[in-house]
Amino acid sequence: MKTAPQDRPSARGLRVAVVRSRFNAEVVDGLLAGAREALREMGAADRDVTVADVPGAFELPLAARGAAGSGRFDAVVALGAVIRGETDHYEHVARAATDGLAAAARETGVPVGFGVLTVGREEQARARSGPGPDNKGAEAARAAVAMVHVLRGLEGARERAPARRLGRARKMKREARKRGVGR
């Protein structure tokens, strides 16, 4: 039986962006409810969680990249549902969302929790987005928060600047401009 880690790292004081697809809204609303509940359980204040809607799963990577690169957030949680249909459109959207969200995390250094369901049938999506321990939105939120702590631990004694200060990407751009690069 597959089970996700159930540890509850602290989200106290973290600012989290949740980007969610409005396509398959009923399923994604369940993922959002799970993510919000998990964030509260980990100590995140509602005021520190920002939710942004995008049209579909294909648009999630751009919104996640924007949130992660803004310098405002410690973590991003991406929520969506791609349900197989009669054409191969499913494969293209699922791959674009997966690859794009991974790239957003790598490019910015900000954790992106992957809460995008890629399932064959609507019943599978409902089972993974309903209340309870199998909610994939909750899993994605816990993973994003856990990665904040992993990265901070790997940075060693050097304290990472709070998300409200310049984000890593903006800071790098500013330093490059000072050196005369990119003018």
TL;DR?
By secondary structure, the chain is α/β, with parallel strands linked by helices. It has a single domain, classed as Lumazine/riboflavin synthase (Rossmann fold, 3-Layer(aba) Sandwich), CATH 3.40.50.960.
Question: What are the segments in which pLDDT stays under 50 over at least 5 consecutive residues?
Answer: none
Number of helices: 6
Helix and strand content put the structural class at alpha/beta
Alpha-carbon distance between the two ends: 55 Å
Mean pLDDT: 87
Number of strand elements: 4
The protein's oligomeric status is: single chain
Which second-level CATH architecture applies? 3-Layer(aba) Sandwich
CATH class categorisation: Alpha Beta
Rg measurement, Å: 17 Å
Strand content: 15-25%
* CATH fold topology: Rossmann fold
Largest sheet geometry? 4 strands, parallel
Total tally of structural domains:
1
Measured as a percent range, the helix fraction is 40-55%
CATH superfamily assignment? Lumazine/riboflavin synthase
Choose one word for the global shape: globular
List the helices and strands in order. Answer: EHEHEHEHHH
Within the largest sheet, what's the order of strands? 2-1-3-4
Question: Keyphrases for this structure?
Answer:
single chain; 183 residues; alpha/beta; Rossmann fold; 4-stranded parallel sheet; 6 helices; 46% helix
Task: Describe, in plain words, how this protein is organized in 3D.
- There is one protein chain.
- The chain has a four-stranded parallel sheet with strand order 2-1-3-4, with helices on both faces.
- The chain is of the alpha/beta class and 183 residues long.
- The mean pLDDT is 87.
- Helix 1 packs parallel to helix 4 and helix 2 packs parallel to helix 3.
- The protein contains six helices and four strands; from the N terminus they run E-H-E-H-E-H-E-H-H-H.
- Helix 1 links the parallel strand 1 and strand 2.
- It has a single domain, classed as Rossmann fold, CATH 3.40.50.960.
- Helices cover 46% and strands 16% of the residues.
- The termini are far apart.
- The longest helix is centred in the middle third of the chain and has 20 residues.
